Give the backbone structure.
Amino acid sequence: MDDNMLLNLALDAGEIMLAAGAETHRVEDTMERILSMGGENLPEAITFSNVLIVSIHSPLSGCLTMSRKAPSRSTDFAKICRVNDLSRRFTAGEIPIEEAYQQLYTIYNEPLFSGFLNILSYGIASGAFTLMLKGTIGDSISAFITGILLGLFMSFLSRKNVPYFLRSLFGGAYTAIFAILFYISGLGNQYSLIIVGSIMTLLPGVTLTNAIRDVMESNFLSGTSKIMEAFLIATSIAGGVGIILTFYHNILSMLGGI
Amino acid sequence: MEVIFQIVMAFLACIAFSIIFNAPRKELPFCGISGSISWGVYFFVNQILSQQVLATFLATLVVTIVCRFLSSIRLEPSTMYHIAGILPLVPGMNIYNAMSGILSNDLLYCFEQGVMALKLAAAIAIGSILILSLPQSMFHIPSK
């Protein structure tokens, strides 16, 4: 088996999984499993927060090492599951390396946003969360509409490649604007519940859960960097909401003064 | 009655979340079940004892056990079910309250709510770690 090709395959698989939001341990495990198909070659796979390094000891060409930087993240469970499945079938010897390459390429190029259903689920999640926080039906309907508008806005922002913390800041501000509009129109009863229900879709729950797992597997570097990321996102959202709420209160007190 | 309504809502919310995170279509019901179990335990304990931190901790323990069994039955990464189960427990309300405390210059309220959010996050972390560090062989269904 061609060693360079094997290294490339392992890196490709690792890159897709890391970018899709898999935890460090799983990425290293998958890459090592693919590398061990080259026979007795002392495979080693290392992953830091967004860096992938693989190395093998090849009998023909000596030590081979390759490293790569993974791109920005957006959670995508389907990709993780499919790469996981592909690596298992590859190591079981069911598919040759060329075909594994082809399949990884198709997985890599799959778009994340599947359109209408995705946007609708932003709305359903927001509406359901508002009801879970003991909001009224009116609150829930407002949160549903806010959530759908937020879903459209977020997919627009990620298509324009806006940095992740600005995305959270704009998302928070956007949510607050619509929550206050619904509150003024009389449909919503409490704007805080509409805001909390809608920003649940932006909160870094996945990042935090993966950070816990990383720290537990003693991958402290990846874990702490993910905790920082989660903290930054949460602060950006709160900042975005806060800016709009301050404007709203100031305008209210100005109107009260007249 | 209220409990059933809340559980159904959690089921819907967690399925919607899993669609946003692009989970495979055939795994969606299991993600929903995991979310409704966690919210059900949380709601039940919180109503009886009115202890938010304890309720979050117990819910995390239960849902992590459930998702490890689900992962060994369905042969998919357990992260998927785990994330769907933990999402309803994320202390969004406390983070919002802490922020609104800063805005209204009520720093005592901000600190109170901020520390509460940290306590809840720690409860989730400890609950997950306790179950996740057990070996996988304990979560094997022997019938297969």
Notes: The radius of gyration of chain B is 16 Å. The first helix of chain B runs from residue 2 to 20. Residues 2-89+127-139 of chain B form one domain. Chain B touches chain A at residues 5-6, 9-10, 12-13, 15-24, 27, 39, 76-77, 79-80, 82-83, 86-88, 90, 92-93, 95-96, 98-100, 102-103, 121, 124-125, 128-129, 132-133 (CB under 8 Å).
